[in-house]
């Protein structure tokens, strides 16, 4: 029972941290509310996407989705998906670190 509570707590904590970290990570690579920062990794991604698409960034592409998320925030379903992945990773990591060898 104690281990189950630990796994649940680790999952919940990691879910919250993951949701909070997404905007920070997007900003760190250059996706901001005001647009893509010149000279950033996001700018390099945008350039590559534009070249691959004949001069423009396609709607729905990774670059477009990441920029939209940075500008408007995560939608409810995206937040839920990110939290689910974070929770699973936290619980799995906790399980791996606490299992008996």
From TrEMBL:
It holds the Pfam family Ifi-6-16. Signal peptide: none annotated. One of its GO terms (cellular component) is mitochondrial membrane. The keyword RNA-binding does not apply. GO terms for biological process: intrinsic apoptotic signaling pathway; release of cytochrome c from mitochondria. Belongs to the IFI6/IFI27 family. This is Interferon alpha-inducible protein 27-like protein 2A.
């Amino acid at each position: 029972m104690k281990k189950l509570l630990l796994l649940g707590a680790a999952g919940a904590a990691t879910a919250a941290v993951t949701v909070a970290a997404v905007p920070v990570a997007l900003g760190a690579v250059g996706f901001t509310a005001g647009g893509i920062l010149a000279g950033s990794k996001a700018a390099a991604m945008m350039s590559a996407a534009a070249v691959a698409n004949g001069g423009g960034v396609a709607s729905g592409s990774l670059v477009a989705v990441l920029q939209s998320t940075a500008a408007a925030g995560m939608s409810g379903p995206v937040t839920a998906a990110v939290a689910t992945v974070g929770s699973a990773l936290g619980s799995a990591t906790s399980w791996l670190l606490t299992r008996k060898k």
